[in-house]
Write a structure and sequence with these properties.
The protein is α+β, with helices and mostly antiparallel strands and about 80 residues long. The chain has 4 helices and 3 strands, in the order H-E-E-H-H-E-H. Strands 1-2-3 form a 3-stranded mixed β-sheet. The N and C termini lie far apart (about 40 Å).
Amino acid sequence: MTISEDLLKSKLTVALDASYVSVNDDSDGCGAKFSVVVVSDKFNGKTLLQRHRMVNEVLAEELKEIHAFSQKTLTTEQWNNLNKV
């Protein structure tokens, strides 16, 4: 399976109805190390662990091939507060 930034972004956006998803391949293109930022209102009222489990469930098949994965999960409100100018 070829894992790409676009594949991960698409799956996370659709499954979590995300308003913002950023995916970075930190492995120089080999597809073994990714970092993501996911903003979704589906995270409202969820603990950090619950949010991470939601992401992990969406990417269950891909995570079998990925060696390193970091994620930041935020609600829209948290995202807006972080990005105030």
